[in-house]
Amino acid sequence: MLSGKASYYRESRNFVFKGRFAALGINGRVNISQHRDMIDAEIRTERFFDLAGALEQLPVDRDAVSWVRENITARDYLINNLHLGFTVTEGRVHVRPVSMYGSGTASEAMIRFHPSLAPVRSTRVDVSLENDRLSFELDSPVYKAKNLDGSRVTIAPLLGGNTRLAITLQTESPLDSEIHELLKTYDIKLPLTQQTGTTRGNLQLLFDLPGFTLHTRGTFATDEGSWTWGNIPFSSGAAEVRLENDRVIIDNAELSWRDVIRADLTGTIDTTARQAALSTAITRLDFPEGGREIVRAAGLSTPVNIDFSDEEVKINLPELMAEIALDPSRKLLVLRDLNRVKAYLAPIRDFPFQEGKVNIDFTDPDNLAFDGFISTTVLPLSLDDKPVNHFTFRGDRTTTKLSASINQGKISLTATDRLHIALHDYLVTVDTDRFGTKAGTSSPVPLFITGPRSLIRLQDLSIPTAAFQAELNGKEVTFTAALDPGKILFEAKDSGMTLAASDIDAMIAQDFFRFADLEGGKFDLSVEGKDEKNYEGFVEFSDVLIKDAKLLNNILSFINAIPALATLSSPGFDSDGYSVTQGIAHFARSNDLLTIQQFRTDGTTINTEAEGWVDLENDILKIDLKLISLKDYSRIISKIPWAGYAILGEDGSLSTSLILSGSRHEPDITTNLPAEIVMMPINIVKRVIQWPFRLFGRIKDSAEETPETGE
After folding, report:
1. 10 Å Cβ neighbour count for 213?
2. Structural domain range at position 661
């Protein structure tokens, strides 16, 4: 119903109407003017209650009107101003978009963005019509308890088809379960949930009409906060994320987990396939254990692929050949190629191996389980004369101990504050050249090794042992073993090495007696020095046969050629060798020069004392050798025509001094012929020399007394 005043101006052919109207439950004022075929209308209303009914009178998409009817309600509506400009041609109305504009309000409105969601409540909605766009700006909107300031609904274009309904949601809150509920309504399934912090989000839901085909896009920005991805907790710094339909695009995210890892993340998450293709730049990765470095990396960039299509989240790092599987009942790390990650794993960083793999079950971080294998040719283990190069293992780690079984129990391993390795069947070959400062071997944790048998390689010598034990602490190495016969102790430190042996046979001692060949007997040996070619040593021995065929033959030939010395050649000092009841040797080696500082023996018929040097590289020597015959020649000396050549001791003994020089095997021999020689008793010499060498007491498990001084 219209009421008002109408005027028609004949000259200008203008028609003007000013008045009121009442229709469809809406009352208001209307001004209409017509100039030729152009009609303009200005409408203002009083408060009314049916917005959809009013929109039906306008050229607005019918689906959009239906959406308004179903999802927007208010206490009342008011049109402040509505301008419509159109033409009528042959009975058809043509609306001009640029001349259709206006504004209005809705009071105490409720907008439902989906039938299954709680409504968004707004104290007022500002409605505007301009540029072929109908907009609803929400004032103080609240979804449940969340503020959605800045949210709006737009419908455009109103004329000409291809109309799109756009819902824009602005949030500044944690990305929590309530926001996830809203997103999941539109099949937006973000895998992230925010526990603390705030996310600034701008989400657009775009519905193409007719049909309400949905498109989504949005931006999300956050500062510091804590999150979970599935059941994985992590922290974030600044992060910027975009949403394009079913793709989440991470432009930049600073992530961290505990104090272990910090990384920058970029990439795309497909929320439909529930997979992610990401790139990560790890700025810090540091995982210690008991104060020791275990995992460390920095400046590491690698792609990361994530599959969260089912309950188990699978994380794949292809360049590192590493995989992580996470679900509520199991958490598993698989390192398929240890060579790819050894640079970041301190326990194996400097350990040479050909290949290896490990699986770590960390479902319970306090009770880890692991298994795998490693292949290496550097471990000195053998079985049935064949080297052992492949090791399979299985074990677990608690808060107090790590245990593992290797090669079906042939090796047992336990670790607490130190690592204990027990070998049950394998033969260990110990090369002393691979210990100490020369090789640079270093154990990151104190290491204790026991086994049933070993083979010690000392320069060119191989020494089989029975039960043994070895301790490694940093670069310090201690090795003890039972021999057949005897015992042996080897130590290596930054300052050098020591070797002690008790009750050993000639085979071992021979290596330190390069100037003689030995057979039988028992030896106590102590060596201390920088390395295998620079040391000082002391040996005690008894019941030994010293043999060197060429050397002895030369000495005997020389003696027999001189009548005054001929009687020195006798059983116990003849071509079969030199029989020694007891003796000592004090020597030092500097590279290839072996210096004999004192060599003292008591034989069955001859006592000797020697000093000098042996050049091991050129195989030459120079030794001053003193001989004393223990026979009493006083009864027969008057019967020997050449007795004047000899000087008899008070006990009737005969003595001389020889000088050996030149080739070690065929030296030149000279003498001063008769010489009066006084030799200190061997027990006094032994006490004086051995005092600096304290290892005998340790190898024999007995305390050593302070040396006595002999007269």
Report:
1. 10
2. 548-679
